[in-house]
Design a protein that fits this description.
The protein has about 280 residues and is mostly beta strands. The chain is built from no helices and 21 strands. Strands 12, 13, 14, 15, 16, 17, 18, 19, 20 and 21 form a ten-stranded antiparallel β-sheet that branches. Strands 5-11-10-7-8 form a five-stranded mixed β-sheet, with no helix packed on it. A three-stranded antiparallel β-sheet has the order 1-2-3, with no helix packed on it. A hairpin with a 4-residue loop joins strand 18 and strand 19. The termini are far apart.
């Protein structure tokens, strides 16, 4: 009688995303109406669209002297696909580090030979190509023999810098010195910043680290505002033409910004500074 074209009858797709399955059968009939059913094999495949989860991302907890090896460690999980690779993207131009078929936690290290403040981007990729990304901030590499920085003068504080009253603008005065004493791994000095129209007078109490790289100096510490509180600060200064200045002050209790004359910029962006209106910034070699 002649055999017609088999008609596939697909069963339902079942199972979790990492182990989907389906059974396919065929109905076959001839021209005389005789029919038969052929049962095919069950096909299982992966249909994972869920990114891995980065659980923790850790690195150096304090500044490291130039020539040190810094280790960054990531722990992760994935819903079902094995993690295929972990990519460490080192700031500063160093080649990426790729770990294949890693287990959690996974670590990579790099020896830093140039003083600076570095970020490390970490990407976790599973077997289906899904990825998760986080950035470790910061690896701080300092050179205690690189000199010290001094500054004094003023800037025009623009709108948005003073968080409590973003509309306030006007002159803000600064004066600072930051340096490493011989044999020390923590800098010393003093920082004063006053935005008079906002009744803000910041005074440093302790420094954490200082990095000098070329014409740029950056250092971090803590202090008080109007004699009270617990505030962290990050000061960035450029000895150039013109000299440039930025200070970011954060309430350490709430982690909220109090003052930042470059509020929309990342912390290590050299160009995110204000040209000083008077005075000078000098990096002493």
């Amino acid at each position: 009688c002649g055999v017609g074209t088999p008609t596939p009858l697909d069963g339902p797709v079942t199972g979790p995303p990492c182990a989907r399955s389906q059974t396919r059968t065929w109905n076959v009939s001839d021209a005389c109406g005789n029919a038969a059913t052929a049962v095919g094999r069950t096909v299982t495949w992966t249909e994972d669209t869920t990114a891995p989860t980065i659980l923790t991302l850790t690195g150096p907890t304090g500044p490291l002297p130039i020539g040190s090896s810094a280790t960054v460690t990531v722990s992760f999980s994935d819903n079902c696909s094995p993690v295929q690779s972990v990519l460490f993207n080192w700031d500063g131009g160093a080649p990426d580090t790729t770990l294949l078929a890693p287990t959690s936690p996974a670590s990579a290290s790099l020896t830093f030979t140039i003083a600076g403040v570095y970020s490390v981007g970490v990407t976790v990729i599973d077997g289906c190509g899904n990825s998760a990304y986080q950035v470790f901030q910061f690896v701080v590499i300092y050179d205690p023999s690189a000199g010290f920085v001094t500054g004094g003068g003023w800037i025009n504080s623009g709108a948005g810098a003073y968080v409590a009253n973003p509309g306030l603008t006007g002159k803000a005065n600064f004066g600072f010195v930051s340096k490493y004493a011989k044999g020390a791994n923590v800098p010393t000095g003093e920082t004063e910043f006053q935005f008079q129209v906002g009744n803000l007078n910041f005074h440093s109490t302790v420094y954490e680290w200082l990095v000098i790289a070329g014409t740029k100096a950056q250092y971090k510490g803590s202090g008080t505002i109007n004699g009270t509180g617990n505030y962290g600060f990050l000061l960035t200064a450029t000895d150039g033409t013109p000299d440039k200045f930025r200070i970011k002050i954060v309430d350490k209790t709430t982690s909220l910004s109090v003052y930042d004359n470059a509020p929309s910029s990342d912390d290590i962006n050299t160009s995110a500074q204000t040209a000083i209106g008077g005075g000078s910034i000098v990096i002493h070699k």
